[in-house]
Design brief:
The protein contains eleven helices and twelve strands. With 312 residues, the chain is α/β, with parallel strands linked by helices. Strands 3, 4, 5, 6, 7, 10, 11 and 12 form an eight-stranded mixed β-sheet that branches. A two-stranded antiparallel sheet has the order 1-2. The protein has a two-stranded parallel ribbon with strand order 8-9. The longest helix is centred in the N-terminal third of the chain and has 29 residues. It is rod-shaped.
């Protein structure tokens, strides 16, 4: 039969203090109850552990042996308790966060900064990629969290926000608050990614609806390269609000909202299934949701957030 840790704790305290009375006071346990616990422990082990003397109690030879082991065990338990409480207060561990490339530059930095400020023991790694790459990384548990598009994420993913799409041109190309219909945008000289990308798929679907062909003048993979091509006057493109907000503020690019119909894409939070998140992952997730809300309110993207409580 396994030793009772409570009895061992009581025994160790009595042996260390050499007094039932003092141990009773420190432990907050009545002296008769302590005596019953020690008697039960001695009966279980079949040896006498303590000897009463006029000056208190002393451990027998068997008691000294048990005391040395009990102290080590109880010290280890106390350390485990302290470490667990420390983890609850200051979570540690590795967290991998994947973010769709087009919004990674504006979303990743505030998440990294807030995580470093609040939880310096969390080792956060942020990676950007396209939606298909992020889905694979979540499925294989390379990423603990991923901000990606709903059309490739698992059905169990949680919605974050809907981002409106814009036609993007060089500086001065569009007036402030400009808008274009989707049908008008289809005829513009467009720089687009290959067919596996979500915006390209969405635009080709709209082209079928309107019975028109997309006017694609160049295919370029990568948001940064596409923006460079636009600044060089090689064409226009279609991007989400988050990808061009800072460029508009710096007046290096201009954008016109797509209307009739309003085109938007939904971002979701994707996570591995059947894999409970660690405390570190939970805390990073909370920070991510907070940053998403703040950036949306600040106008970094036009978003109509679904109920964010669904992912808390």
């Amino acid at each position: 039969m396994a030793l009772d840790l409570l009895k061992m704790r009581y025994f160790a305290k009595i042996a260390e203090l050499g007094s039932f009375t003092r141990a009773s006071s420190e432990l907050g346990v009545a002296q008769p109850a302590l005596s019953l616990h020690i008697r039960a422990l001695e009966e279980q082990l079949g040896v006498q552990l303590l000897t009463r003397t006029p000056r208190g109690v002393v451990a027998t030879e068997a008691g000294v042996t048990l005391l040395s082991h009990a102290q080590a065990i109880l010290r280890a338990l106390d350390q485990a308790e302290a470490a667990t409480k420390e983890q609850a207060k200051y979570p540690t561990g590795d967290v991998s966060l994947g973010i769709l490339s087009s919004i990674c530059p504006i979303l990743s930095i505030p998440v990294i900064e807030e995580c470093a400020r609040r939880f310096p023991k969390i080792r956060l790694t942020v990676s950007e990629g396209d939606s298909q790459t992020l889905r694979t990384a979540v499925d294989t548990r390379v990423h603990d969290l991923a901000v990606t598009l709903d059309n490739v994420a698992k059905p169990a993913s949680a919605p974050l926000f809907d981002e409106r799409l814009y036609v993007v041109g060089p500086s001065g190309h569009f007036a402030p608050d400009a808008a274009l219909t989707v049908e008008e945008a289809l005829g513009l000289p467009l720089i687009l990614p290959t067919r596996r990308h979500g915006i390209r798929i969405l635009l080709e679907r709209q082209a079928l609806i309107f019975g028109r062909d997309l006017n694609i003048v160049r295919e370029i993979e990568g948001v940064a390269s596409t923006k460079a091509a636009i600044r060089a006057g090689l064409g226009l493109t279609i991007l989400g609000r988050g990808a061009v907000h800072t460029d508009e503020e710096s007046r290096t690019l201009t954008a016109a909202a797509l209307t009739h119909p309003d085109l938007a894409r939904r971002f979701v939070l994707d996570m591995p299934v059947n894999h409970p998140p660690t405390r570190a992952v939970i805390e990073v997730r909370k920070i991510l949701l907070s940053v998403v809300g703040k950036l949306g309110a600040a106008g970094h993207w036009t978003c109509r957030p679904p109920n964010l409580s669904e992912v808390t």
